[in-house]
Amino acid sequence: MIPGTILVLEDCDEDFETVSDAARRAGMTHHLRRAKTGDECVEILRQGDFLPAFVLLDLNTAGGDGRDALRFAKSDARLRCVPFVVLTTSANPRDLGFCYDDGANAYHLKPVRHDEHLRVLGEIFHYWLRAVALPQKYEALTRNVDSSPR
Amino acid sequence: MSTPIAPPPDASLPWASGPYSIKRHGVSLTNCDSEPVQTPGCIQAHGALLVLRLSDLAILQVSENSVEFFGETPEALAGRKVESVVGAEGAARLREVIDREPIERNSLYALTLPARGAAIALDVCVHTVEGVAVVECEATGRGEEDGAVDYFRGVKAAVGRMQAANGLREFCGRVAEEVRALSGLDRVMIYRFHADLHGEVFAEAKREDLAPWLGLHYPEGDIPRPAREIFKRIWIRPLPNAAGPLVELVPLANPDTGRPLNMTHCALRGASVMYSEYLANMGVAASLTLPILREGELWGLIACHHYTPTHFPYRLRAACEFLAQVATLQLKSAEQSEHLVYRLQLDGVHQQLVAKAARDGDLMALTDRHPSLLDAMEAGGAALYHRDRWWCAGKTPEPAQLDALAEWLNTRPDFASATRPAFVTDSLARDYPAGAEFAAMASGVLAVPLSRARHDMIVWFRPETLQTVNWGGNPHEKPLVTGPHGPRLTPRRSFELFTESVQRRSLPWSTVEIDSALRLRMLVMELVVTRSQRLAELNVDLTRSNEELDAFAYVASHDLKEPLRGIHRYAHQILESAPALDDENRTRVEGLMRLTVRMDSLLDSLLHFSRVGRTTLELDKVDLNEVVEEALEMVGARRSDGTFTVGVPRPLPGLNCDRVRVREIFSNLLSNALKYSAPGPARIEVGYLAPGETGPRPNAPAESAGHTIFFVRDHGIGIEPRHHEQIFRMFKRLHGRDDYGGGVGAGLTIVQKLVQRHGGRVWVDSAPGAGSTFHFTLPRGETPTLP
Known about the structure:
The complex is a heterodimer of chains A (150) and B (787). Helices cover 47% and strands 15% of the residues of chain A. By secondary structure, chain A is of the alpha/beta class. In chain A, helix 1 (13-25) crosses helix 5 and helix 2 (38-47) packs parallel to helix 3. Chain A is globular and about 35 Å long. With 787 residues, chain B is α+β, with helices and mostly antiparallel strands. In chain B, the strands form 5 sheets. Chain B has a 7-stranded antiparallel β-sheet with strand order 1-11-3-2-6-5-4. In chain B, strands 10-12-13-7-8-9-19 form a 7-stranded mixed β-sheet. The A-B interface holds A 12, 14-15, 17-18, 60, 88-92, 95, 110-115, 117 and B 550, 554-555, 557-559, 561-562, 564-566, 568-573, 593, 596-597, 600, 604, 607.
């Protein structure tokens, strides 16, 4: 069985490594699928061969940023139910307003301190993978993908 | 041909039963307005008059002094043909003139009767009126016989000089000079009637030793209506000997018609007793008066006075008459050129004012310094309503009176007219009774609106005429000798009677002035429109650049933080993965991590500060006591928790301010007070001083006067006075980076910015060891906003 996938939009290698660290520390079995640009993120979502458990989104990335990916997903009937969790350095109230307006499910500030960064990520993983119930249809969709011929 | 004006007979008048004669009836002060000045029944005794039947030139009436001139009594002449007086040749000449010349109501020279024995040489003039021929004979006199004086040359030169004049006043001055040069009379005045019919000596030429009357004003009654009416019909009115005797016509009534002779056009017409006495009371012995008309109305008079009885020979009269007619013809163009000059002067000053206002960026320039609104318009005061207050120059009513007047003006339809929005009056109190309060300084009002929305306007004020003009017969002057009718017939007395009729009235506003005010209004409105367009453009630019700055600040802080996070991560990993790291290197790596964290807070402060000055304030009713409680929670302190106390001795007042930002002011100040407390339990006090209260205001800037002063006082380490200014500077720290709990040094800079956003000031009173008190004001919070 293919474990669930978490789609991570992150253009900074160090920050992506921190995400991986945090996932390992949390004992997660989920697969981390990385997109380096907003365009890439949109492309992965558009292909439709899987639905991520949730998307961890950095806002300011090169080549079409996280905002574009968020707007695309939330206006697509199939992708709308996927939770989008924003993790960004931007404390700009406009970004906050924009993200929640466009359907983001959570907005976290990315700390500079490494230990805090790990803590925030740990909390995110715990909350979205353990604390909340996600729609069943992910399972179904995942199974469908699973049984499809290679 | 219109019939002369004759008032309906009044049965109570002494002359109601028969023809009037000045000599028999005279007039009294009570009936002088009914005086039949056109049929006085008498002529001046220096000449003789014959009334002839037109058909056969038979003598119908003759003046009673006929013996003196013709050697025969009136009774002897009655009914005889005119030949018996002027000879056959003279009669033929008269017949020729009567038949061929335009002499209806227009006296023309016909012939000269040579001296015969005792009788002197006589100039004979004739005109026709109401079916009779009127023959007037006067001594030729003064070397006139041989035409020694060349009036033609004089008149020709005079007309040339008059036409070269520039503007009305100069033109009138020339007319006076030329008439005086021609006539040799002591004083020649151009007497101009104002719209309310009072008159002014507008130009004057006089004998040097005489006191000037130029600029003096005289009440309407000094030249009564019947006299003004006559001057619309005749071109000249000679009175060579005002005090001279009068002689009656014999008989008084025309035997053919039973009617008295209409003497309107007679040079010899006897003067009203009132007029001769008026002249005598001024010491004037002879007068010559000529009208100046404008579009059929009496514009003014050429009034000549002589202080000894004189003689006005026919040719002199004709020359003066000619000048008066030229004056009448030229008046309009002189007036137009005068208006043009005034108009250019008004517009010139107004354009200067608008240019100055454009340079200053403010309309207030219109009333301060020079030039101002008063430099162009002939007004006593001017007021500009702009930016919700009055800006005044010269003498104007009080602001409260101006407010009330403006409110009234704004209800008037003429003030809101689309084409000529202006209110113009020479008697404000007539339309606006409250104006009576300031009638002396502002009976005349010329007002134009500038902006309907904000009620901006310009108002000029013109004082009551009584206050401004030099009245002839100033009550302080000693009256001259008075005649039998007493002081009534002196300018002084008539002035007193007249004052009531000009109360609460100013000189009227001319069309030139009203037009210029309207043009100024257009200029100012254009200026305002241009400025508001520029402001709108600047605003768009400013908003755009603010947005760009905002975006830049966020992006910059984001981009700077990313490498910082990476550095912190690697340092963290080094510490974790190399437990064997020696102490020295461990300290170095820890230092690296601390520096990244510090740089992180610096970036946050910088970002915060960049936003504090630009976001809009959200003003709302705020209970400051709650705000201080919240601020204390934010800085992690509770009152009286053992190590320190925060006291609020009396409840703080409510304010209309931005709750979040005022809380930040308090949290920053409280945080500082806690940070820099002296060893031992700290005491902090939060309080205020209301505007009226007495209390120490150390270091308070002048701008804080009249505002509530808030303060946060600690008994901590204090600040040296030389640092009192520096502490508000961005990232300025007085102590080591990690002393007193660290911090980036942005707190007070942000406090200052937030206080400034509320229109206030912040300052400190402190000395080392004596604690610090931070004071601030929030003026914008004190003005309640409208719901």
